[in-house]
Design brief:
- It is a single chain.
- With about 400 residues, the chain is of the alpha/beta class.
- The chain has two domains: about 220 residues, Response regulator (Rossmann fold); about 140 residues, Response regulator (Rossmann fold).
- Helix content is about 35%, strand content about 20%.
- The strands form three sheets. The protein has a seven-stranded mixed sheet, with helices on both faces. Strands 2-3-1-4-5-6 form a six-stranded mixed sheet. Strands 12-13 form a two-stranded antiparallel ribbon.
- α2 crosses α11 and α3 packs parallel to α4.
- The longest helix is centred in the first third of the chain and has 20 residues.
- The chain is globular.
- It starts with 9 loop residues before the first helix and ends in a 19-residue tail after the last strand.
- About 55% of the residues are buried.
């Protein structure tokens, strides 16, 4: 396996529209250095770059505004990256390298539940705190780990909002078909959706999985079509969403609503599908319509944050950006509260953290996962991402039922 040191990643990072990271920690010890193995290539590269953008935006803001005050001293921050190529084992090996060879102070999570789970094992063994914003599988947090914290709502809640919304329509949706990739995150998403549907009077007429490396899901689509559900849901990642949505059109599968755990919020979904992306719903950790008022020390509203992302990276802020930045903010507020860079004191401060940010509430249960921040539902309407649920957060109304293919 070839490791990709940060110097070798310059071209990749610049190609993604990012400034190259600023290198190793200052020799004088005036810099807090975070480390992250992240998917800069491989199957999760799109989400990986959004993750890195979220980290970089925070780093640049903090350094431009005087750094982080720790006790009586002020520190700049730096983030050292390696490309884990979207591979679980590679991510774990790179996390170990960041700790043992690069001597980073703390870890920021990779993208994905699989990689986050393997890196969490390293963080636990090395007793180095990690905050992650892109691994929602509760499997990560059911191991008794004490050094891993996740700022995002758990996987089982990703599609609940879409079901709540479609059930609230007139007439309400009554039947649900679920397709899911085989990875841990996607399976937890699917299980959570099925459980909610069954508990709330909706009938699950189809629920099947496919390999998370699949490039052809035509047989799954055919079987799903035969059950004729009101609502079609997919639990997976961006590539799954693109594959399924294209397959649904190819086989002319008609439903009242189409929803995805990951996909519609990422810029590549609409750019890849064009008009066929319209009227699709996505469960999201965050949107720029949410109305939180955050603590001082960073952009305090979702709208301010969204403007900053657009200015830096020239696209609409994605929830992967926001949850990644939120992971950094968890460290910022915990370090300030601890008044120390001691790993145990920072770990303890993270465990007790209770702060509202532009992203929402950051607070962890005894396992280290954030059960306190609700999800939102977004829909692509005429090429624009619109938040449609819950009603108090929405900046638009859901378009339901979906029109036929070719009329979008």
């Amino acid at each position: 396996m070839q490791l990709r040191p940060i110097a070798a990643l310059g071209a990749l990072i610049l190609a993604a529209g990012l400034a190259a990271p600023s290198g190793p920690a200052a020799a004088a010890g005036d810099t807090i250095v975070f480390g992250s193995p992240v998917s800069l290539t491989g199957s999760l590269t799109k989400e990986g770059h959004l993750t890195q953008e979220g980290y970089e935006l925070w780093k640049n803001y903090v350094n431009a505004h005087g750094g982080i005050k720790v006790g009586g001293k002020t520190y700049n921050v730096d983030i050292k990256y390696y490309d884990d190529e979207s591979k679980n084992d590679t991510s774990a090996q790179l996390a170990e390298r960041l700790i043992d060879q690069d001597h980073v102070n703390f870890l920021l999570g990779p993208y994905g539940s699989g990689t986050s789970f393997t890196v969490a094992q390293i963080a636990e063994r090395k007793k180095i705190p990690m905050v992650e914003g892109n691994g929602a599988a509760e499997k990560i947090f059911n191991q008794g780990f004490k050094y891993t914290f996740g700022v995002l709502s758990p996987a089982r809640r990703y599609l609940e909002g879409i079901l709540q919304m479609t059930k609230a329509q007139k007439p309400p949706a009554q039947t649900v078909g679920i397709t899911a990739a085989s990875d841990a995150f996607s399976q937890e998403v699917a299980q959570g959706a099925a459980a909610w549907a069954n508990a709330n009077g909706m009938k699950v007429v189809y629920n099947n999985k496919y390999p998370d490396t699949a490039t052809d899901v035509s047989s799954i689509i055919s079987a799903l079509k035969a059950t004729n559900p009101d609502v079609i849901l997919n639990a997976g990642h961006l590539q799954d969403a693109l594959l399924v949505q294209k397959g649904l059109k190819e086989q002319n599968v008609m439903a009242k609503a189409y929803g995805y755990s990951v996909g519609p919020d990422t810029p590549d979904f609409a750019s890849s599908l064009g008009k066929d992306a319209n009227d699709v719903f996505g469960g999201a950790q965050w949107s720029d319509a949410v109305k939180y008022k955050g603590a001082p020390g960073f952009y305090q509203t979702a709208q301010e944050y969204a403007k900053a992302i657009d200015a830096a990276y020239h696209h609409r802020a994605d929830y992967h950006n926001a949850e990644s930045t939120a992971a950094c903010l968890a460290f910022q507020y915990a370090i300030q509260k601890a008044g120390s860079l001691d790993t145990e004191k920072v770990r303890d401060a993270l465990a007790k953290l209770d702060v509202t940010t532009f992203y929402g509430i950051i607070k962890f249960d005894s396992r280290g996962i954030n059960l306190y921040k609700p999800m939102v539902v977004n829909q692509i309407q005429n090429g624009r991402l619109t938040t449609v649920w819950p009603a108090l957060t929405a900046d638009g109304k859901p378009k339901y039922p979906a029109p036929p293919w070719g009329q979008r």
